[in-house]
Amino acid sequence: MSEPRIVFDNVSRFYGEVLGVNRVNLAIQPGITSLVGPNGSGKTTLMNLMTGLIRPSRGTINVLGIPPTRPEELFRKMGYCTQFDAFPRGLTGYQFIYSFLLVHGMIESEAAKLTDEALQRVSMTEAADRPVAAYSKGMRQRIKLAQAIAHRPTVLVLDEPLNGLDPMARNETIALFKQFGDEGRHVIVSSHILHEVDRISDQVILLSHGYVVAEGQIQGVRSEVKDQPMQILVRCDKPGLLASRLFERDNVVEAKVNDDGRGLLVRTRDADNLYLLLNRIVLDNGLEVEAVAPADDDVNSVYQYLIGAEGGTT
Amino acid sequence: MAVFKHAYKGYDGPLTPAWSRFLVLPRYAFEEMSRKRFYTMFFLVSMLAPLIFALIVYIEHNLSALKMLQIRDLVPIDPRFFMNFLGWQSMMAFFLAAFVGPGQISPDLANNALPLYLARPFSRVEYVLGKLSVLLILMSIMTWIPGLLLFILQASLEGNGWLTQNLRIAGAIFFGAWIWILLLSLLALALSAWVKWKPMAGGLLFGVFFVAAGFSGAINAILRTQWGNLLNLSHLIGAVWASMFEQPMHRGTGAVFFRVHGEETPIWCCWLALLAICGFCLYLLSRKIRGAEVVR
After folding, report:
1. Is residue B19 within 8 angstroms of chain A, CB to CB?
2. Which residues partner with A188 through β-bridges?
3. Which of B9, B11, B24 is the best substitution to test chain A (most A C-beta atoms within 10 A)?
4. Alpha-carbon distance A197 to A212, whole Å?
5. Contact A18/B113, CB-based, under 8 Å?
């Protein structure tokens, strides 16, 4: 049985003297995995390596047990959607999907069936007979996605698939990704839109300057960033009292009372201890607590801590 | 680690044979071409010469027609006749390559469409083969297919073992045409891959043919040599055809395009030069046909 993971084993890729990615070791599980990093960090290189469109300078890659050097097997299981608009001239949306299914090796009747299925999934059936050149940016994104999923792949590699989509189409697309992820497929997505990465990802891979800076579930990644104190928001009736009690302990770095006087933002080097301490203070002082929640275990915060503002991401 | 229920079903239906997938490319190319009246017109015009040549063969074997036209012998139906036919049709094929060739690869490169092809069970070789087949099929219909039909017509009208005595002509038509259309197709595709502006790529094909001929003449004149001919496609093809049809080189081979000028070049050198040009075109294609553009 093949390995249900995408494995990068010490993979490097150089473009002459320019570094693409360096010493990448990854084991990507099923579900939605987001590649996050500034422009030039190596996201697209990683995707191109995964799909075999470029070969690694060093190391090996394995996609569900298949090396990218065996495209006949690999692309039966993989669908790829590039970040650029990529359409042969003069085709309608239907022809675009149908013709590439023929290239894929489907017989005509099956290709027609799969084309209809893919068009339905991205809600493009009505516009299918219009030329792709006449599509809006959002429609082009959806038709690209349709061609990537048309042959029912197990692994979907999608480079910036949410770019140019209006909010409604974006929600539909995200729902589709979630459905794929829930079905146990691999959905590898690169995106600059961090709050959406947060919404959809089962795991993230953070890249910077060709190196993998962090990988895993975002909360796990955040807890590993030891040099940045965790931020925890406590909504309670006496934030001032809570702040004074917390400062009696060493591991609290900062506490800031909210403007509305009903919340306290605490920065701590030891979140686990803080939660225990919080329980004790609440019981000892009879505080009424509405909510306790981490304030910076999202992709945006982790991105800022690990990569900084260099990418100018939103 | 999350647990996922594998609820999807991958495609497990029938597949076409891997060798046949490249034919999807000419299919769509022909569909697109058929929508353009110019190509249809040009193609029809290019079929005029085969009709005229067939008519000549027919009249030549029809005594009453010869009597009516009051001529004893119209045109001798010999190897030179077929070589002229091949030369003329190959010239038409050249124009076709200049019109159709530049539109093969450059739009895919300009539209970033290569990853679409190559992120499938479809290799770079198959992609080139698919694009090449567009030109090869079209030019075959213009060159060796009517050439062989003409040969069969002549053989059937002549009878008396003419076919077996002149089988070499059929071979020369077939292989001579293939050398030319293969060279032309590779040149056109290589230019299409490197020059994104179609009119420029088409113009360059003419440039390769005519400017190189002028350049080779200049080399020959200045250096008092014959080796400049190796840059002259017209000379190379003309010489190869002359040897295939067993004709003297200086009598001119077919249309004016393929005349052999000046001193004769050893035939093996001509073959070698043609191979080198094809090899160089393949190298140029291999540099450009990539799934992901490498920006250094």
Report:
1. no
2. A33, A157
3. B11
4. 17
5. no
| Mean pLDDT computed over A169-182 | 88
Q: How far is A71 from chain B (nearest CA, A)?
A: 5
Q: Which residue of A has its CA nearest to B118?
A: A53
| CB neighbour list of residue A102: distance below 8 Å, 6 or more residues apart | A108, A111, B16, B21, B24
Task: Encode pLDDT of A236-292 as tens digits.
Answer: 888 888 888 888 777 788 888 888 888 888 888 787 788 888 888 888 888 888 888
> Mean pLDDT across the stretch B127-143?
95
What is the pLDDT confidence band of residue B296, given thresholds at 50, 70 and 90? very low
Instruction: State whether A183 and B32 contact (CB < 8 Å).
Output: no
pLDDT in tens, B205-225: 888 888 888 888 888 888 888
Give domain status of residue B224, yes or no. yes
Please tell me the distance from the alpha carbon of residue A196 to that of residue A188, in angstroms, as a whole number. Answer: 14
Mutate to test the interface with B, among A87, A92, A104, A155 (most CBs of B within 10 A): A104
Does the beta-carbon distance from A147 to B4 stay under 8 Å? no
Give the closest of B7, B111, B119 to A53, CB-based. Answer: B119
Residue at B58 is within a domain: no
Query: Does domain A229-295 correspond to CATH entry 3.30.70.100?
Result: yes
**Residue B135 structural domain:** 22-48+76-288
Nearest to A44 by CA among A69, A73, A11, A21: A21
Residue B67 lies in a domain: no
pTM summary value: 0.81
Measured between CA atoms, how close is B127 to chain A, in angstroms?
Answer: 10
For strands A186-190 and A230-236, give the pairing.
unpaired
Q: What is residue B137's predicted lDDT score, i.e. its pLDDT?
A: 95
Number of structural domains found in chain B: 1
> Is it the case that residue B281 has pLDDT exceeding 90?
yes
- Inter-chain touch B15–A86, beta carbons under 8 Å: no
* Inter-chain touch A48–B14, beta carbons under 8 Å: no
Which CATH number is correct for A6-223, 3.50.50.60, 3.40.718.10, 3.40.50.300, 3.40.50.20? Answer: 3.40.50.300
- Chain A interface disruption, residue of B1, B3, B4, B21, most A CBs within 10 A: B4
With a cut of 80, say whether residue A192 has pLDDT above it.
Answer: no
Looking up tokens 């093949």 gives A2
Assigned domain for B294 exists: no
Residues of A in contact with B105 (CB under 8 A): none
pLDDT digits (tens, 9 = 90+) for A14-71: 988 888 899 999 999 999 999 988 888 899 899 999 998 899 999 999 999 999 888 8
In chain A, residues with a C-beta closer than 8 Å to the C-beta of B114 are: 86
- Mean per-residue pLDDT of chain B: 86
Q: Which residues of A touch B2 (CB under 8 A)?
A: 29-31, 202
| Tens digits of residue pLDDT in B146-187 | 999 999 999 999 887 889 999 999 999 999 999 999 999 999
Domain range list for chain A: 6-223, 229-295
- pLDDT, tens only, B218-274: 888 888 888 888 888 888 888 898 889 888 766 554 445 666 666 677 889 999 999
For residue B118, give the nearest of B288, B284, B295, B252 by alpha carbon: B288
Spatial neighbors of A23 by CB under 8 A, at least 6 apart, are: A10, A11, A12, A59, A211
